[in-house]
Amino acid sequence: MKLKDLAARLDCRLDGDGDLDISRVSGIEQAGAGDLTFVANTRYLGVLRTTKATAVILGHDAPAPPCAALRTDQPYLAFARAVALFADSSRPSPGVDPHASIAADVVLGDAVSIAPFVSIGAGARIGARTILASHVSIGPGASIGEDCVLHAHASIRERCVLGRRVIVQNGAVVGSDGFGFVPLTDGTYEKIPQPAIVVIEDDVEIGANTTIDRPAVGETRIGAGTKIDNLVQIAHGVSVGRNVMLAAQVGIAGSSTVEDRVILAGQVGVAGHLTIGQGTRATAQTGIPNSLDPGSFVSGYPAVDNREWLKSSAVVRKLPELKKRIAELEERVASLEAHLASVASPDERRGSRE
């Protein structure tokens, strides 16, 4: 693609030769002739001076590179759209593979693509243009909206609902049983049935091997536009708001509410029956045992304000030195007390004994 055409499609200002040919998008350290790269973080400005790329996407205030540039207010967004332009966009042809197992009363929308060994239970509905890769399992009565993509080995359990344009990565499970058991007097446990449903709203993406549990009553719901990374566990009865970001290995315990635009970084844990207020951010490995007000920014365990956590972390690094200094001070105090006791007058010593 000519660089001038790429600039027009990405709505970028072109600095340089627009007739240069671009064949792919690459990272700035690996880029070579014919490559388009990008810089959205100031830490890479040093690498920019030596890049071998043919062109680079930059912010308007970034220094001039040794190659052509595409200038924009949002270089990271332009990069993402450039990747989409050069990505292999081939999609499977519409149709149902003869090796798929589909119940007689399943409703299939127009132009669906169903790969070998897909299983679709009785009464399920599959929306138009949806793609089901091999070994996808759709339970009885489930509903999948239009333009969804379910990758291999994804499982949507009985009666669960997916909206439009939902992406489910490999091995994810929507509607697995919630973790509910009643302890008995003999030390064993009786399972609480989990017959309710999971509802996934429009434009949600669910990462590989993520599990979203169904509850005994009510529903588990994931709001529109939410993006969920790999290996995330969302327990029964949880409500996740709109445009939430959940990074890898986040765990949310049962009946908690995560409000709109919350960001939980990797390995954040949320206890049950809490409310995480709108716009909250939690850094990696934060443990949240209590509800948080909207707009909170927390770290550590138990979760505290990020600024306080940073101060505490700085002190923790100095604990060995502080311990040594305290021991030295204790020795000096003991020595001073012994000295004062040895030089005290007879009357003082007699008074102290009395």
Describe what this molecule looks like in 3D.
It contains six helices and 38 strands. By secondary structure, it is α/β, with parallel strands linked by helices. The chain has a twelve-stranded mixed sheet, covered by helices on one side. The protein has a ten-stranded parallel sheet with strand order 7-10-13-16-19-24-27-30-33-36, with no helix packed on it. Strands 8-11-14-17-22-25-28-31-34 form a nine-stranded parallel sheet, with no helix packed on it. A hairpin with a 5-residue loop joins strand 20 and strand 21. It is flat and about 105 Å long. The chain starts with a helix and ends with a helix. The mean pLDDT is 94.
Can you give me a brief rundown of this structure?
This protein is α/β, with parallel strands linked by helices.
What is the number of independent domains?
3
Secondary structure tally, helices:
6
The 3D shape can be described as flat
Could you give me the name of the CATH homologous superfamily of the largest domain?
Answer: Hexapeptide repeat proteins
Mean pLDDT: 94
Sheet-strand content, in percent, reads 25-35%
Which CATH class of the largest domain applies here? Mainly Beta
* CATH architecture group name of the largest domain: 3 Solenoid
Give the low-pLDDT segments.
none
Largest sheet: 12 strands, mixed
* Widest beta sheet: strand line-up: 6-9-12-15-18-23-26-29-32-35-37-38
* SS-derived structural category: alpha/beta
Question: Do you know the CATH topology of the largest domain?
Answer: UDP N-Acetylglucosamine Acyltransferase, domain 1
The tally of strands reads 38
